[in-house]
Amino acid sequence: KAGVTQTPRYLIKTRGQQVTLSCSPISGHRSVSWYQQTPGQGLQFLFEYFSETQRNKGNFPGRFSGRQFSNSRSEMNVSTLELGDSALYLCASSRDRGLYEQYFGPGTRLTVT
Amino acid sequence: SQKIEQNSEALNIQEGKTATLTCNYTNYSPAYLQWYRQDPGRGPVFLLLIRENEKEKRKERLKVTFDTTLKQSLFHITASQPADSATYLCALDPDNYGQNFVFGPGTRLSVLP
Q1: Dihedral (C-alpha) B12, B20, A92, B59: value to the nearest 10 degrees?
Q2: Which of A88, B79, B87, B101 is deepest in the core (most CB within 10 A)?
Q3: Considering only alpha carbons, which residue of chain B is nearest residue A35?
Q4: Three-state SS for A52?
Q5: pLDDT by residue (tens digit) across A76-96?
Q6: Counting one residue from A and one from B, how many pairs have CB atoms under 8 Å apart?
Q7: How much is the pLDDT for A50?
Q8: Is the peptide bond between A106 and the residue preceding it cis, with omega within 30 degrees of 0?
């Protein structure tokens, strides 16, 4: 069974631009979560989608948004990029909500210059 | 305030010894707790999940304990090997089944040959 895939793997953007990251969960998984990982703040929860609905949102500004499609694939968007948005963005899928392990993708390394 | 801490940022041990990593949390009442392994440049990999009514969980050379009175989880790797060198993260869901995971800062384990 294929794992979680994320595209692109690396991205360089300029301040003020916007970016869209994509995540394809494991087949059959319905919950998709997004995380930001930085050396200073560690792994921080961005949001979670289940059945095309955002179920939870972390403490991030409104510039960070996402969506989930009917096939469970998910995208996240960051508008008006800031230097501090440089991070590894990780997507994780799980079969359902609750007592299910999360399977993480390899991440997208975003650099904002 | 709520926080989740892991005992040390880095831990060095000799091959063959048992590594013990600690995860402490404050002002949470998790119904379960998870442990992940993360290698540099890659997404975390799920290792073990332990419920609040389980005192101990084992998987091959790994053992996890969960003490809700002490608000602490211990993660043990017995007969450690250099291949066990990685960062280990604990995570809990403050909403219990809300998929809103909070991760600890991680402990970077180095197993020396």
Answers
A1: 120
A2: B101
A3: B101
A4: coil
A5: 999 999 999 999 999 999 998
A6: 61
A7: 94
A8: no
